[in-house]
Amino acid sequence: MEEIVKLEGDVLWIQVPRELDHHNCGAIREAADQMLLQHPVREVLFDFAGTEFMDSSGIGVIVGRYKNIKCFGGMVSAIHLNERIRKIFLLSGLTKMITIYEQEA
Amino acid sequence: MRENNMKIEFDSVSENEGFARVAVAAFASNLNPTLEEIEDIKTAVSEAVTNAIIHGYPYSVEKIWLEASIREQTLFLQVKDNGCGIENIAKAMEPMYTTRPDLERSGMGFAFMEAFMDDIHIESQVNHGTTVFMKKTICGGEEQE
Ligand SMILES: Nc1ncnc2c1ncn2[C@@H]1O[C@H](COP(=O)(O)OP(=O)(O)OP(=O)(O)O)[C@@H](O)[C@H]1O
Ligand SMILES: [Mg+2]
Description:
The structure holds two protein chains of two kinds.
Chain A: E1 5-8, E2 11-15, E3 19-20, H1 22-38, E4 43-47, E5 53-54, H2 56-70, E6 75-79, H3 83-92, E7 99-100
Parallel strand pairs in A: 2-4, 3-5, 4-6, 6-7
Antiparallel strand pairs in A: 1-2
Helix pairs in contact in A: 1-2
Chain B: E1 3-11, H1 15-28, H2 35-56, E2 63-71, E3 74-81, H3 89-93, H4 109-116, E4 119-125, E5 129-137
Antiparallel strand pairs in B: 1-2, 2-3, 3-5, 4-5
Helix pairs in contact in B: 1-2, 2-4
The structure holds adenosine-5'-triphosphate and magnesium ion.
């Protein structure tokens, strides 16, 4: 199985699945939180390069990781958003909470 | 007049979220929607079905009914559960309002349904269940014969 989280220095890179919904968000949440417990992480980076669909469940996962890392002074970011995912981020107010790197998917 | 109707019954398990999205998207494809319209519909279906699974039936696997119909260029959707129901619908529809922060819900589901569909209407009775009605007129791309 391909890894969905990877530690690069103090950045925790998360490969978001093709569809980020309630069904798929549990795996990311568990993998990310396990890493956060074991390693000093400064930034959690959600990579949407392969992602076509996201609903409010995805927002919950991102905000949840933000809450977990914020108290340690860390940050959450996202990269490779396609137009659709960007719209979901905007509507939900996520863009005010996390850093978006401008590269498109 | 163009008319088409469908109804599916499925279990309230999370793998059916993807199934419900794809089923409605395929049903609506006759309206020749744009990619954006398809995404709007899929998101709205996903939100309503996920709500039925998480909130409607928090303790057991039960049935969810999904109905879709087409009248001319308009898609009508209905997502129904016989679950716990909603006490205060107006409150539930407020953005950021959730009764399940413990499950990392963000309270954006109804806000997305409102944003992506033309109209949404909820009927609910505590201990009897919830039905979400939505509709969207598809402007679409080029008309095909
Ligand atoms: N089918 C349902 N049965 C019972 N209660 C529901 C149902 N759908 C929604 N609710 C109630 O309405 C509230 C708001 O729903 P909404 O989808 O907007 O947010 P959420 O599901 O809590 O969070 P999110 O959708 O962002 O994950 C829910 O927290 C829940 O209390
Ligand atoms: Mg919801």
